[in-house]
Task: structure prediction
Amino acid sequence: MNSVVIVGRAGQDPEVKYFESGKVKTTFSVAVSRWDYKSKAETTDWFNIELWE
Result:
């Protein structure tokens, strides 16, 4: 199993979908700010997260 830790701010409320099979899917986005030395400005990277069950 691979694991990743993303520390940031939630970009929106989670969206939860229920399927007839009984599975549940939750999606949301996370914003992570970082300093870009090339442009000498803070930039924001967005991660789309999808969780199952």
About this structure: Residues 34 and 43 are 6 Å apart (CA to CA). The beta strands are 9-10, 15-18, 24-36, 41-52. The mean pLDDT is 94. The chain has no helices and four strands.
